[in-house]
Deoxyxylulose-5-phosphate synthase (Streptomyces radiopugnans), 109 residues
Amino acid sequence: MGHAKTSYVCLPCRASYKQPYPGDHERRCPRCGEGLVHVGSAFAAPRRRDDEGWRVLTVLVNAGIRFHRNCCGGPGYRPRTLREVRERMSYAERTGEPIARALVRPELP
């Protein structure tokens, strides 16, 4: 039986790849040769021409947020628009909450 596949993404190329996850060895983008980022098995890539979606994804990935399945419900809340990202980053700045935690919070108080 083979390994389950998980998603890797190249942010400069706006490309995602499903590959087996047998361990933590570095993977390279077949287009540009840059390192791929492991984003998890519950990842759904935006369309290549979706500028806003890729900008949001870049913020999430750079904040260390990934898309792994939790027991039954998928990866949980993730912002989809730049407006949501800005609101959550503003909230994090005001309250001192870590940015990564503010970005995945289901609702802001």
User: Anything to note?
Assistant: Helices lie at 51-62, 82-95, 99-104.
